[in-house]
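Troubleshooting: if your tokenizer reports a length mismatch, compare your output against this known-good record of 180 residues.
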Amino acid sequence: MIARAAIMAGTEMGKGAFSIHCNKRGHFSCASRIVAIIRSARATWAVIAIIVLIALTGLFAHGPLSERTVAEAGLSLTYERFQRVTALARFTARISVSYGDEASLTLSPAFSNHFQIADIEPRPLRSSAGPGGLEFVFPAPAAGELPVVIWAHPRSFGHFDLTAAVDPEGRVAFSILVYP
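Known-good structure output:
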């Protein structure tokens, strides 16, 4: 109401970056410009609020919407579904060892095509690369599960379908979206 009264009176509205000069002859177009500016400001704040909420939930990085765990007989893998191409990614595998003195983890060939491994904890006893993918052999724990953490850098951005397997039965499939 105050803005309309000021426009009708032919006064100057706003003295900042969005100052609008109105006279009696063009007061209807001036009012529509003010309404358009107010609407665009509200829309901008709504978009900013949505981006902040998405960021807080972890859709674009670490958070409850990004972290995923997949499990299948003897293998559980926790990873971030959404990753940045410039960031170090963490993959945590938990391997149930039922017998023997060694535990093996095999990552699909697509993993080595799309990720550069930076570190593995614990260190494997031996590793090999072949047409079946990357195989890591670890000493079996005295009891329970063997936790294995793999740190890797994405080589490029895109959507990747990967698999991880343990001998003899556990195989999990997982997808990762790497963005620039």
